[in-house]
């Protein structure tokens, strides 16, 4: 039997170094694999939690619609604040988390789409009434008149179906010349956040307007329910007849509203404080005592996942109908 040649110290050292390097490489690979597994597990858990949270949001949506139906069935002629439902945050405990739902009157706002006129499916053109009402609201919110005029006319240009700018407005040529060009959609706005892209609207102006505006699924003037309008929302009433009604007077009238509300728009306009006022026919018709649209805000917290939903509900018929739904915080 031939004797194995002796191994030198250098060879033994090289072999040991190779083994150590292999161990180090395997350790790094194993650590990477474990980290990927941990991340994958966490992502899967988050996805499951988000899916579960979404399911709870759908359930809360259904419960809220039933609540809206109950409100509407309580009195077929009018919608009042009875039951303290408007803007009230309802807590809905769920296994391992919490859901909240808030229902509010969705028509007490300025409908951005009302700056144009024209029936559904037909061409839209600027509405002088809607434009002047938007101007009035902005002026009441202390936006300079010239700035308010530019924004209101530019919004009408943004929505109308022609490419001719109104006086002081903006159309395709204006937006195409911007550093980052884009074009107006020439269609009804789907979300109030679209206003930020309209000429003249700065972040500061948008922040001031956001609590007062909405984008209803039509271009009709907003149905202002004087039975649910709060004194803090007095600008939405004063904008109807800005030359005749001061903000303070509008606020005071809402404070003096009967506890059970008004039985009809006619009963409201017969108030002694309003007898001297001569509202335009369109403004008089905007006043309602029954709510059509409801806003629904839902928030779900579950296993580290947070989910928000906003929805618009049409209560024209029973059961009420979901008009649109949006995930994420309102912008």
Layout: helices, strands, pairs:
Elements: H1 9-74, E1 88-94, E2 97-105, E3 110-111, E4 116-117, E5 125-126, H2 128-140, H3 145-159, H4 172-176, H5 203-209, E6 213-214, E7 224-225, H6 234-238, H7 247-255, H8 265-269, H9 281-286, E8 287-288, E9 293-302, E10 305-314, E11 321-327
Parallel strand pairs: 3-6, 7-8
Antiparallel strand pairs: 1-2, 2-9, 4-5, 9-10, 10-11
Domain T2SS protein K first SAM-like: 108-218
Subcellular location: Cell inner membrane
Protein name: Type II secretion system protein K
What does this molecule look like?
It is built from 9 helices and 11 strands. The protein has 331 residues and is of the alpha+beta class. The protein starts with 8 loop residues before the first helix and ends with a strand. A 5-stranded antiparallel β-sheet has the order 1-2-9-10-11, with helices on one face. A two-stranded parallel ribbon has the order 3-6. A hairpin with a 2-residue loop joins β9 and β10 (305-314). α2 runs antiparallel to α3 (145-159).
Compact description:
By secondary structure, the chain is of the alpha+beta class. 40% of the residues lie in helices and 17% in strands.
């Amino acid at each position: 039997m031939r004797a194995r040649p002796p191994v030198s110290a250098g060879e033994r050292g090289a072999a040991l170094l190779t083994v150590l390097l292999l161990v180090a490489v395997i350790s790094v690979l194993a650590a990477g694999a474990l980290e990927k597994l941990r991340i994958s597990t966490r992502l899967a858990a988050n996805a499951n939690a988000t899916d579960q949270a979404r399911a709870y949001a759908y359930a809360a949506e259904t419960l809220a619609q039933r609540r809206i139906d109950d409100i509407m069935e309580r009195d077929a002629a009018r919608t009042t604040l009875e039951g303290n439902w408007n803007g009230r945050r309802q807590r809905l405990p769920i296994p391992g988390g919490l859901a909240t739902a808030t229902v509010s009157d969705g028509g007490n706002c300025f409908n951005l789409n009302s700056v144009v006129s024209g029936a559904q499916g037909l061409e839209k053109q600027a509405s002088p009434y809607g434009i002047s009402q938007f101007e009035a609201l902005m002026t009441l919110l202390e936006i300079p008149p010239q700035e308010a005029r530019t924004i209101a006319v530019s919004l009408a240009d943004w929505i109308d179906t022609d490419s001719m700018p109104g006086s002081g407005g903006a159309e395709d040529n204006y937006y195409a010349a911007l550093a980052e060009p884009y074009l107006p959609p020439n269609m009804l706005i789907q979300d109030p956040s679209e206003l930020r892209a309209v000429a003249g609207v700065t972040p500061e102006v948008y922040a001031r307007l956001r609590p007062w505006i909405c984008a209803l699924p039509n271009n009709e003037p907003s149905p202002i329910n004087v039975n649910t309008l709060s004194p803090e929302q007095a600008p939405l009433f004063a904008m109807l007849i800005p030359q005749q009604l001061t903000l303070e007077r509008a606020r005071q009238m809402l404070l003096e509203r009967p506890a059970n509300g008004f039985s009809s728009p006619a009963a409201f306009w017969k108030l002694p404080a309003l007898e001297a006022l001569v509202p335009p026919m369109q403004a008089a018709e905007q006043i309602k005592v029954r709510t059509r649209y409801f806003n629904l805000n839902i928030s779900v917290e579950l296993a580290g996942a947070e989910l928000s939903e906003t929805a618009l509900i049409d209560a024209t018929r029973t059961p009420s109908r979901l008009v649109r739904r949006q995930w994420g915080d309102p912008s």
